[in-house]
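Hi support team,

I'm filing this because I wasn't sure whether my run with magnesium ion finished correctly. The job status page said complete, but I'd like someone to confirm that the output block is well-formed before I use it downstream. Pasting the exact inputs I used:
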Amino acid sequence: MSQSQTAVIIPAAGSGQRLGVGIPKALVEIAALTLIERAAQNLSPIAANIVIAAPPGFEENFRSIFSQAHLSAQVVVVTGGATRSQSVANALAALPVTTKYVVIHDAARAFAPTNLAELVIAQLEAGERAVVPALDVIDTIKVVDERGYVINTPDRNSLRAVQTPQGFTRDAISAAHASGADATDDAALVALLGIPVRVIPGSALARKITTLDDLTWAQELAVRQ
Ligand code: CTP
Ligand code: MG
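And here is everything the job wrote out:
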């Protein structure tokens, strides 16, 4: 079992502008559990360590939440950065030397099931260096220019909507972040190095809580669970 050599990084330092509830999104409660607690709870079974990037100024708040959370994984809180990539880079610097596999998971995808992370790890154990869950795209996607005109229409069959948890060997993810480059997910940085990124089926439960509609979805899900 790779659990003892696996660390989870949870970027949770965003402000939640699009949700617009006035507190950092990771601290929003759904059925009495904050998003960050739920995300950590769901991924704790696969890892020995969890490193959380908190919004600057909220580190102690996060530490106090996790001092009472009783997770099997050891939790460390670091200060997040101005971008998601910077938050992940800050967390990478805090990984124990024993870490072989790194699973990176958005706090905003708090309902992603443990089992999805297990499927990601299984691919790493089978020799992949980068693994991402993704769903087929339902809408037709257009590439549009800055004046609002369509440039082209990529074939929908080749498009995927990518989620987290994303899994990497420690070497791959460290190399990807060494340059300080920025992207909306970690797999994009790894792919820039020419490392193959394996895509596996994602989960509707890994939906990113971004808007008030997503919050309503999450509240209904939490009641049913
Ligand atoms: N994130 C982070 N550090 C940042 C920005 C984002 O750790 N500087 C994290 C968020 O906390 C979230 C994940 O990256 O768990 C995905 O980001 P997103 O859903 O965009 O969250 P926010 O940036 O908080 O939301 P918004 O873009 O609406 O402000
Ligand atoms: Mg954001």
